[in-house]
């Protein structure tokens, strides 16, 4: 599913998110479709994971591990870099949910995020690259 994405979109996915996406079984995909239909945005990630855990403790645990990995990448970043990182995570969450639900996607936001990265200070760009060596901003 993720492998079908354009390079400018896939490049924004952290390693833990890609590994999670690749690990999803067919039965887990059904659970995610059901949950994402109700909680398909990053602002509802807590409720999303709780709902997944109620159906599959293992899948919910793996989702929490991904979220913890994403949060750990924010440590030591400036407020501007944290804000930019959150926009990236919101976008990749939207992409994952949309792919799972079979919804049409627009990838202009990926181009916007790549351009926005270039507008960050050199220090913020360096810090983001250091905290996210697997992400191509």
TrEMBL record:
It is found in: Secreted. The keyword Secreted applies. Coiled coil: none annotated. Its main location: secreted. GO terms for molecular function: lipid binding. The keyword Secreted applies. One of its GO terms (cellular component) is extracellular region. Keywords: Coiled coil, Lipid-binding, Secreted, Signal. Belongs to the fatty-acid and retinol-binding protein (FARBP) family. This is Nematode fatty acid retinoid binding protein. The lineage of its organism: Eukaryota, Metazoa, Ecdysozoa, Nematoda, Chromadorea.
């Amino acid at each position: 599913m993720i492998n079908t994405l354009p390079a400018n979109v896939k490049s924004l996915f952290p390693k833990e998110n890609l590994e999670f996406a690749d690990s999803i079984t067919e039965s887990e995909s059904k659970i995610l479709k059901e949950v994402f239909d109700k909680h398909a945005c990053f602002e509802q990630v807590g409720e999303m994971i709780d709902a997944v855990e109620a159906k599959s403790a293992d899948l919910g645990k793996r989702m929490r591990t991904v979220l913890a990995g994403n949060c750990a990448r924010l440590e030591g970043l400036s407020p501007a870099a944290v804000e930019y990182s959150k926009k990236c995570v919101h976008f990749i969450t939207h992409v994952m949910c949309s792919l799972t639900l079979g919804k049409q996607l627009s990838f202009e936001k990926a181009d916007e995020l790549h351009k926005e990265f270039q507008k960050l200070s050199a220090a913020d760009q360096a810090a983001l690259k250091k905290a996210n060596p697997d992400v191509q901003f």
